[in-house]
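Entry 12.
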Amino acid sequence: MSASRCKGESQLDARAMRCQGRCRVAQTSEKLYAEACRLIPGGVNSPVRSWRSVGGEPVFIRRARGAEVVDARRPGLSRFRGSWGPLILGHAHAARDRALVERAKAGTSFGAPTALELELARLLIEAVPSLEQVRLVSSGTEATMSALRLARAVTGRDTIVKFAGCYHGHADGLLVRAVPERSRSGAGQPPECRAPSPH
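Predicted 3D structure (tokens):
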């Protein structure tokens, strides 16, 4: 391990230590997952984060910088992720973080159009010659649902085709056979994570 990486790790550790006094949950992935199963249906807030269907348990992230992500299962072990794609600049990028702090001072979410989203739309259309217009959304599920709605409007058809055993978003029609056949377990959740029966 290089000295610069060790220095970066200790800087991240120092930041994490400042907030550990406020944390009231265990700090290992196994304990965090047990607590999550008690508080959150299935123990995760998105089906793509539940690894049981493919023979594992979710990894709980402690911190990240750049492309390095350190999880709670094996402290000090680094993994490379991009939050499933959108973190082009990596985690905790200094210039982006400064811009986010400045933006937060003026508000972060309004449920109404803003001039900044027009600026982003303009940048995307200029960067990708085939784009005529864009619809900005917050998740892959929303993007897939918007694409399906557009396809239905253009084609006049209601039927969609999806890949069995693949995750295409958290909408009912997209969750059909989202788990590979060989790894199905009942309703798709381990017994300790299933929501209690209403009866």
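Annotation: The chain has two domains: 1-108, 110-183. Strands lie at 61-65, 68-71, 78-80.
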